Amino acid sequence: YIALDGRWVDGDKERLSDDDDASDSNATPILQRPSGARSATSYPLPPRRFTRYFTLIIVLILVGLGLTLARLSALSEAQLRSGEAKPPPPPPTWESFPFLKRYHGGIRTLISRADNKPEFPDPDNNTLESTVQKDQQEQTAPSEEKGFQKRDIPQGQRFNPVNQDGVVECYLNEERKSNVPQLLAYPGIPKGFPDPIMGSYELFGMNGDVCFERYGRLGPYGLGYSKRWGGSGAGMEGHREGSDQVWGGKTEIDYREVNWAQAQQKCVQKNKSRFKPLPKGRKHFFTDMPVGGPEDEKPKREENQDKKLLPRQAVVIRTWHDYQYDDEDMFYLRALINELSLQSGGEYTIHFLVHVKDNDMPIWSDDFTYQRVLNESLPLEFRGMGTLWSERQMSLIYGGIAETNYRDLPIHGAYRSTNMPLSYFAHMHPEYDFFWHWEMDIRYTGHFYHLFDKVGKWADQQPRKGLWERNGRFYIPSEHGSWEDFKHMVRVQTEHGTAHKAGMYEKVSGTENTQVRTPPVWGPMPPTGEGDHIETENDPQPPTTPEKDNYSWGVGEPADFITFNPLFDPHATNWILAEDVTGYNTSAGFPPRRTAIITASRLSRRLLETMHRETALQRHSMFSEMWPGSCALHHGLKAVYAPHPVYVDRRWPTSYLAAVFNNGLHGASGGARTSVFSDELQHNFLGTTWYYHAGFPGNLWKRWLGYKVDGDGGEMEEVEGEGRMCLPGMLLHPVKHVDLIYEHREGE
């Protein structure tokens, strides 16, 4: 072994030496000190060879890694200089804008909208430079902690937007005369709450000076009370002051005993005198195989001219057979049925259109299988409200259409042809005049009837003149002013064009849009390709020229198509699905098209029957979000974009936002490569409350429910701060996978 002084020592010899020393020491007197100094030794140490090799290997690896990185960096710079590679794109400009904070204001700070100073938009900072400068000043300024004086929450008010004249009251349970209490709203909005950046409450005559907190909105549908009483067991934590106001002393509803189908049917029956007579329903001919034919059961209606009767409307919720419904979904569905059907006296009827994804399931050949799948597809309380459909069924009904496999997806599939089952559903249900196409991931913080009724009535009053041009633009009140100012601006842009770089792409596109002025749409605009035949016998025609029309044609005419996003022209854009056109002659260009992202909409029977015949007889189809608008354009039907209130999560400069979202041809949102709907520019929607892949709606909804999101919000912040959030009515999409926190029950 090695001694401390570095000498090698033989252990055997050392032991012999120790024995000799021991014998000598025995002979030495006790008090006599032994002569000679012994060398100090140590215990054996581990070999150093492994440590040296390991260190050497690590050094070589680090050196090699450094040389490799240096070489790759040099190669990357060379590729950039030669043009073989492009540098990574910079982050979107909007990511540098600061987040808005007053969306999360609490119920203890309510103030009337007239007295409110909104956090956004700020008229003093509506340009990109001023917004960036203000953000820098706020970041460098010393923080001032402002105390918050807690106040009691105000008294809520019942919110009932339904005109009760002639309405026979409907109940969840006729025997007990039990019904769902009206929603509880609170006057005003949280102090500093932002204004919508797009759309308007005043435009539709909606009440935007009230807000809804979670218990007043969802409490009647199972939030905030225990499962043992028929609730969800969620929402038992957080700020609960005043949460029982919504019940008004009544007992909570036990939803384990509710049969919505029965309640809805009885409501329609009790109020049948308010609506047009029911026509005879159609049979499912391809399965029933009856004697005779469709002529024997042609639907007939006896119109009553002495009394103004209401149209019947269906709300068709698209879902699928193995969808897993959680309690948060149940809140949403109960609200739809109660607020649209029961509280309105049957003006709307809710249906579930259930997609059976397994084409081999024998639902069309075996009644037992059909009923079993239907029962398993919906929660118990919604049994009797569903209709099954499958892609194989659609291929039978709409056979003969070319199988283009655009983006490797079938033409009869739910993604490319969502409207096929809806069109056939409308064809088989002649009792309905309008169909609201709705989705499972939509949420609304207000009353559904208030939204549907106001939007529908406003759309029916819109004049035809300039309608398609207004439909193609976002309405931004902070930049465009009043709706009349907006109409005038659109007319000027349409008649004279705009000096915009989008014009560069017109000649390159090689299509007919090469002139500075784009003529307005006036009447039907059918496809012009050779062999592209469509039925035009029943298409509405303009009564006069647009120059002679004084914005009167179309006023009072029910809208055939109502959307919640602009109906933009996909021509010349880089929208990835613009060319999903089937059955048309595209050798000389595509037919006229219009697209509205998100399929949520209202469609008339006239439009759906036209779509049905176009697909079944002419073999025409387009992508789901493009087909209804394009069909309405071809046949001269009335389509309306309803600019509902849309919010944004950051402090965008309003002039910059308007330039980004209406960056298409001649001030529209589409028609050019610079369109915000082009694939590479759709990221601008991520912070809005209404777009198919936006992130803000889900976060806002979860915060409103009282949960933490990204470390903010939650129970402690509500209790110690301004209280739970209170939001005005706003449409949110998408909202997916909300994980509720439930009460702990004994035995769980």
Automatic annotation (TrEMBL):
It holds the Pfam family DUF3405. It comes from the Eukaryota. The keyword Membrane applies. The chain crosses the membrane at residues 53-72. Keywords: Membrane, Transmembrane, Transmembrane helix. Signal peptide: none annotated. Residues 13-43, 113-161, 285-307, 510-549 are annotated as: Disordered. The keyword Coiled coil does not apply. Residues 124-142 have a biased composition (Polar residues). InterPro entries: DUF3405 (IPR021822). This is Major facilitator superfamily transporter. Residues 143-153, 295-307 have a biased composition (Basic and acidic residues).
